[in-house]
Amino acid sequence: MHTNLIILAGGASSRMKQSNAVGLSAEEIQQSNQRTKGLISIDGSGRPLLDYLLYNAKQAGYRHIYLVIGQDKIGHDLAYPAMLTMLPSGLLGLVLASLIAAFMSTISTQLNWGSSYIVHDFYRLQIDPEASEQKLVLVGRISTVVLMILSALLALVLQNALQLFQAILVFGAGTGLIFILRWYWWRINAWSEIVAMFVSGIISLLIALTPLGGYLFAPETGLLPDYLEFPFVVLVTTIAWVLATYMTAPEEDQVLKDFYQKVQPGGPGWRKVVNTLGVDQDSDEQGWSVPSGIIAMLLGCVMIYSSMFAIGHWIYGLPVSAGVLTAVAVVSGVVLVGRSRSLP
Q1: Element (H, E) at 32
Q2: How far out from the chain centre does Cα 242 lie?
C-alpha cells in the first residue's frame, strides 16, 4: 500500500459561489457565506471538511499527506484567520481584544524604548549635557511623536510583516558585532554605536524596500549570491563604525576606569587601560572566563535545538534520526553541566 496521499485543495480556501442551494439549513447557509470551503462542517459534530478528510486519511494508513493549494495562497498565514471563523461571538471578541492589547503593548514599548535612546543616549550625552528634567521630558515627547509618524509611514511602504522581519534580521546582523565587542574593547565609544545603528538601519531598509536589494541579491540576476546579504551588511557596518571609532575621541579615562572596576570585562581588549590607568583587578585564579562562557553558550544551543528537533522527529515517527538527536542533546547537556561548575 502506498503511504503518500496528494490532496488537491486549491479551492479549499475559497468561498462558495452559490449558497442558496435547496435543502440547506440556515446554519449551513450561514457557514457557506462566512467560511471557506475547507472549513464548512459536513456533519452534526461541526467538524470541518478538511479535518474530516485528514483524520480519515491518517486512519487509512497514509503517513505523508500533501495539500496542493493555489499559488496565490503560498506564503500566507491561513491557519489563524481560519481559526477565527470557528470561534463563537464571545471568544471572538476576546481574541480581538488580545490582538489589540498585544499591538498596543508592542507599540508603546518600542516608542518608549526609542525615545529613551534619543533622550538619554544621544541628546543628553552629545547635545545638551546640562539639560533640565523638564527639557528632557519635552524632547522625549517630541521624539515619541516623530517616531510614531515615521513608523506609520514605514508601515504604508511595507507590503507584509515578513519584509519588516527581514529588515530587523539584517539590522541585527549589522549591529550585533559592536553590541558584543563594546564589552571587550575599550576603544569603542558612543559614536561607534550610533554610527553602527544608523548605517545598519539605512542599509537594511534600502535592501528590503528599494531595488538595491534585488540588484545585489536577487536569486538569479543579483550581483552577489543571496546568502551574502548578511555578511555584506556586517562588513559595511563594521567598516563604518571602526572608522567612526578612530575618528572620534575615546571615552574619558575616569569613565573607562570606573567601567572596568565595576564590570571587570578582562581580556586583551582592556589590557591597555589596565596598564595605563593602573586599574585594580579582581584576583581570579581561573583567568578570563569569556572563552569558557562562549563554549558553554554553544553547548546550550546544541542541546536546545537538538531537543526541539528530536521531539519533532519522534512525533513524526522517525526513530533513527530522533534517537541520534536525543543522544546529541543528552551528551551536550551533560557536558554543559560539567563545564558550568567550573565557571565563576
Answers
A1: helix 26-34
A2: 26
- Sequence-distant (6+) residues with CB within 8 A of 248 are 189, 191, 192
- Other CB atoms within a 10 A radius of the CB of residue 191 amount to 16
Return the amino acid letter for 78.
L
* pTM score over 0.85: no
Q: What does the pLDDT look like over 303-330, one tens digit per residue?
A: 999 999 999 899 888 889 999 999 999 9
Neighbours of 24 (CB within 10 A): 13
- In angstroms, the CA 119 to CA 137 distance is 8
CA dihedral 146, 150, 156, 159 (to 10 degrees): -150
Could you tell me how far CA 109 lies from the centroid of its own chain?
16
Handedness of CA 88, 93, 99, 101 (dihedral sign): negative
CA distance 317 to 292: 37
Nearest to 204 by CA among 180, 175, 184, 182: 175
Q: Which three cell numbers stand for residue 120?
A: 538619554
- Return the percentage of the chain with pLDDT > 70, whole number: 81
C-alpha span between 94 and 89 (Å, rounded): 9
pLDDT higher than 90, residue 60: no
Q: Where are the beta strands (DSSP E) in the chain?
A: 4-8, 64-68
Say what the pLDDT of residue 299 is.
Answer: 92
Residue 283 confidence class, pLDDT cut points 50, 70, 90: very low
